[in-house]
Amino acid sequence: MKPGIKDVLWMVFGAALLLMVTFVALRFGKNQSPAELLAFKARRVDVVEQMRLGLASASEAEKSAVMAITDEDSQKYADQARAATADVAHERDKLALLLNKGGTQGEKDLLAQFSSAFSDFQNIDKDLLTLAVKNTNLKAYNLAFGPAADAITDMNDALSRLMSKSDSSPDALAVTRLAFGAETAALRIQSLLAPHIAEESEAKMDALEARMTADDEDVRRDLDRLAAMPAFTNDTDLATATLAYARFSDIRAKIIPLSRENTNVRSLAISLDQKRKIMFLCQDALASLQQAILQEPIPGVTYGAPVSPR
Fold it and tell me: pLDDT per residue over 185-230, tens digit each?
């Protein structure tokens, strides 16, 4: 039987379609030389390596921001961390385009795995770096060991002078007891500031503040009793001690809120825990992706020892 006109048209269409598919396959696949395929592989491996280096740089800068002792240095390193992270994101997008052109599905899946972990990496960094640049714990330490300590020293020096000039008075024992009581309670408050600044638990900070409040009441009571003694009416040393303690109390009122913010303690905890874990996940995904690209077979190219050594 002779084929009809419809049969002929279908055969012509099928032949044309086959030629088109063959042309595309030859043009974009098998027509590539081993050298071109190697270059394409090297390009992708290089992008992955740049991503791995960028992650390492971002992590190093983040840790420097957390450990820096000035706002300026913290901000400088935080900016470096953000810039390095932005570079990684740029390289990730570049790699996605390359894999769409010639990557395997396994490589695309590994890139998606990295992208998911990298998104968490970016979110953690956003919170961590925001905390790191505030340096509230460092500011609290500077106040505690600077002006607060100076105020306590001024108070104790004034009370020591007060006790010395009362040595021969009938009230010497009472003066010594009250002055020493005020000194001791004030020093206890001072000694609790550093643990409060370093503390991470809200409940423990509450307990430390309760002890400070009790000691503060002791200091004020003893100073008031000294002021009630006729011998110390308008006494300059007692006035100096009272003003020094008031100065210390004002500084303590600034230290507690800074300590409560706990930005250095919180950023360090995040860096050592959440950030470290997500960093490993990102690097593991990139290492697997890099290995997958390296293991891609290229026709006519062998790696390592010859397939059939003589």
Answer: 999 999 999 999 999 999 999 999 999 999 999 999 999 999 999 9
Mean pLDDT of 240-256: 98
The token duo for 242 is 């009272």
Q: What is the DSSP string of 259-305?
A: HHH-HHHHHHHHIIIIIHHHHHHHHHHHHHHHHHHHT--BTTB--SS
The answer to whether 183 touches 223, Cβ cutoff 8 Å, is no
Rounded Cα gap, residues 56 and 275, in angstroms:
12
How do residues 65-108 score in pLDDT, each as one tens digit?
A: 999 999 999 999 999 999 999 999 999 999 999 999 988 999 99
| Tokens of residue 10, six digits | 């279908």
> Out of 3.30.70, 1.20.1260, 1.10.12, 1.20.1440, which CATH number does the structure's domain 136-261 have?
1.20.1440
- Report the chain's mean pLDDT, rounded to a whole number: 89
End-to-end distance of the chain based on CA atoms, in angstroms?
60
So where are the chain's domains? 38-133+264-294, 136-261
Residues 55 and 51: their CA atoms lie apart, in Å, by 6
The SS3 of residue 68 is coil
118 forms beta bridges with none
CA-based R_g, the chain, Å: 36
Domain 38-133+264-294 in CATH 1.10.4030? The answer is no
* Listed residue (195, 190, 198) closest to 219, CA to CA: 190
Return the bridge partners of 301, or none: 298
Q: Where residue 33 falls among pLDDT bands split at 50, 70, 90?
A: confident
> What is the dihedral sign for C-alpha 15, 16, 17, 22?
positive
Q: Is the pLDDT assigned to residue 304 strictly greater than 60?
A: no
pLDDT score of 14 = 52
Is 126 in contact with 82 (CB distance < 8 Å)? no
> What is the residue-wise DSSP string for 12-46?
HHHHHHHHHHHHHHIIIIITS-HHHHHHHHHHHHH
* Residue in the block written with tokens 């394409």: 40
